[in-house]
Amino acid sequence: MNYREQNEWVNELKDRVIVNPDSRVSVCILDTGVNNSHPLLEDILEDKDKHTFETSWGVDDHNSHGTEMSGIAAYGNLNEHLTTTTTIELNHTLSSFKILPPTGNTEKSLWGYITEQAVATREIEKPNKIHIYSMSVTAKDTDGDVLDGTPSSWSSAIDSILFNNDTKKLFCISAGNTDIDDSSFEYKISNINSPIENPAQSWNALTIGAYTEKDTITNDYEDDEVIMAQRNEISPFTTTSFLWDRQWCIKPDVVFEGGNLLFNASLNDKIKHPDLSLLTTNWQFLYTSLLKCTYATSAANALGANFVARLYSTFPEATPETIRGLVVHSANWTDKMFAQFKGTTNSDRDVFKKLLRTCGYGVPDFDKAVNCYKNSLTLIAEDTIQPFFKDGSDIKTNVMNLYTLPWPKEALEDLGSLEVEMKVTLSYFIEPAPTEMVVSNFNRYNYPSHGLRFEINHPHENIDEFKARCNKHGRDDEFESSGLSTSGYWKIGKNTRDRGSVISDVWKGKAVELASCNHIAVYPTNGWWRTRKHLEAYNNEARYTLIVSIYSPSNDIDIYTPVTVQIATPVQIEI
Question: What is the spatial distance between Cα 472 and Cα 276, in angstroms, rounded to a whole number?
Answer without folding.
Answer: 55
